[in-house]
């Protein structure tokens, strides 16, 4: 009998690729063979960014972008015809229900990994009842603004904050996000195992509501793999020269963009704060980036600030010089911050980010949110004031450190996430 062989396949988005790749690396360390399938566009980005270290037990494969049921079927058939280690499980992003359908048709075991919070899986699985109760229409649009509870113990959520609606001004995006939610429901029904990059200590009520969801997070590897952009490691040397708990780390993920007015307002906020900072600014973060900075900004902040296009985020957040993280509240960024006991200043934009912001500020109480002015701008003074409050109030740091200890205990031998992960490994090897 050959090795257990997992075909992992993902939505071609940075926030989805990284956790699935991290799980794949962890599985490979336990003797599981991995074929990691990406779309052509994501595959090229990962390879070009040199963010993948070759591993004999992990093969990277690309297929054309889009719903590729027949192509995936052929990939599996070709592997099974030429490799002594045949595919024994398909591990997919929950949004790729067609991959689950292919595996089901081919009588192959099926598992999904949620790259977002377990509470959102519960929300998505509640869609049929939400429609039945008249809370949302057939297209997912709320019939009226109200607050609901998915269970007696899950924190209340406003209908306007549903992940397929929230903060999005694009009707096309809303449609895509709702269709993604429906595909997640299909995947959950077809999957033998539902894994989640979360933790019992973070969302106990969600796991009580659906015990089939197994938390295995935080998923962290020693070297993050799956990045779409090359990491600028020079910031680590600079970090080493800064005082303990002094640096503001700013990163808004892989897809968020700013208009020029907000970009300049934020730059002036960093200048006003008069603290050392690392600011991640992707080339596409704002239109005409080279002309977008306030005049004289770079000269005025001097060596106090470092602006880079992409950061080795896990290494940055675990560094002793980091004081707080100003974030868009993506789930990966949230988990990476929590496992390192770093306080968060929250600036959510779309989808699940507002849900994560609610947990950070109101449930775990390890961060603060920002308020927009009447014109929809987050003003420099608001940013400065909230940063000072976050860094000046010891309760946020104490809460973050307390949660850090719980999360680290859960991924050590004997911990809940570790035990769930090992059980999954053993299931794959059966």
From TrEMBL:
Pfam families: UDPGT. GO terms for molecular function: quercetin 3-O-glucosyltransferase activity; quercetin 7-O-glucosyltransferase activity. CDD domains: GT1_Gtf-like. It is an enzyme of class 2 (transferase). Keywords: Glycosyltransferase, Transferase. PROSITE patterns: UDPGT. InterPro entries: UDP_glucos_trans (IPR002213), UDP_glycos_trans_CS (IPR035595). Coiled coil: none annotated. Transmembrane segments: none annotated. PANTHER family: GLUCOSYL/GLUCURONOSYL TRANSFERASES, UDP-GLYCOSYLTRANSFERASE 83A1-LIKE. Belongs to the UDP-glycosyltransferase family. This is Glycosyltransferase. It comes from Dipteronia dyeriana. The lineage of its organism: Eukaryota, Viridiplantae, Streptophyta, Embryophyta, Tracheophyta.
